[in-house]
Each structure stands twice: as C-alpha cells, then as structure tokens.
Amino acid sequence: MTDPAPISPRWDWRRPHHWIAFGLGAGLSPLAPGTAGTLVAIPLYLVLQALPPLAYLLVLAVMFLVGLWACDKTARELSASDPGAIVWDEILGFLVTMALAPPGWIWILLGFILFRLFDILKPWPIGALDRRVKGGLGILLDDLVAGVMAWGLLQLLIALSR
Question: Could you say which of 62, 74, 133, 141 is the most buried, measured as most Cβ atoms within 10 Å of its Cβ?
Fold first, then answer.
C-alpha cells in the first residue's frame, strides 16, 4: 500500500535516482501522482513502440533493473515502504501494458485506462503482492503484475477488434 506521507521537501534534484523514481518529477503532483506518472509514460511509449518486440522487452528489462535500484534507494532515504511520489512503477507498468499493441491513440487510451484500473483496484494477486513484498521489488512488482493483467485484457480487445 502506498504511504501517504508528503515527500517533496526531501526530493533532491541532484540525485539521479530521485529523477528516475519520481518519474522526472511527475510523482510530486499533489493530485493523483500515479496517474501523472502514467501520463509521463505515454511519450516514452510513443518513442519505444517502433522497436522490434525483443528490443522493446530488453528496454523494459533494463528499466526494471534501473527502477529496482532507484525505487529501493529513494524509498529507504524517505523512510517509507512505498511512497506515493515514486511513480517509476507506473511508468514501467504502462509500458508492459502496451507491449505489442498496434499503433493508434485508441489503444493508448484503452491501455492507460486498463492499467490505471488494475493499479488502483489491485485485484488478486496485485493487492497481495502490494502488501507482502517490500523494498524496491515490492514497489515495482505489483505494478508489473497490473501491467501484465492489463496487457492480457488489451490483447483480448485487440483480437476482438479484428
């Protein structure tokens, strides 16, 4: 579960892991930081969508590893298990949702909505992972699973649209 504690006074722009964990500052949004973080992922997706599938997945793997370090280090510095301002997990989760999606704004919008629904509602096993897994892995894992679940539903909608 996301910690509600305010963190912006402790955000340090000189620390690269803060830029990553806070999604270039999107996580500092006073309203819906997770949604703001997911919005940051859209331009990134628009750049990455042209990659071949294997390259796209490799980029996600690197982002996961970088995020693991950045989110864990930032959360420890803030003395919080999952600060709401850490949104790298939303960025990564949305990019997982959009893997293999066809081009077009309708798919981006549907992917956005599906990912946010799974991330907010946290159906099983997302909620269980959110409660049980801690540290950087815990921050990332529930959103990765939300991304995979949203991806599955998005792929079903894509298949039904053909």
Answer: 74
Label residue 12 by pLDDT band (50, 70, 90). confident
Q: φ, ψ for residue 123 (rounded to 5)?
A: -65, 165
pTM of the model: 0.92
Q: What is the pLDDT of residues 142-151, one digit of tens each?
A: 999 999 999 9
Could you tell me if 130 and 122 are in contact, meaning their C-beta atoms sit under 8 angstroms apart? yes
Whether the predicted pLDDT of 81 surpasses 90: no
Q: Which helix (H) or strand (E) holds 134?
A: none
* Alpha carbon distances (Å) from 121 to 1, 44, 60, 150, 158: 11, 25, 24, 12, 23
Amino acid at site 115: F
Q: Is the pLDDT of residue 8 over 80?
A: no
Please tell me whether residue 104 adopts helix, strand or coil conformation: coil
> Which tokens sit at 111?
């992917």
- Residue matched to tokens 């690269």: 16
104 burial class (0-12, 13-18, 19+ CB within 10 angstroms)? exposed
CA 114 vs CA 28, 94, 96, 147: distances in Å: 23, 9, 12, 9
Query: Would you give the DSSP letter of residue 51?
Result: S
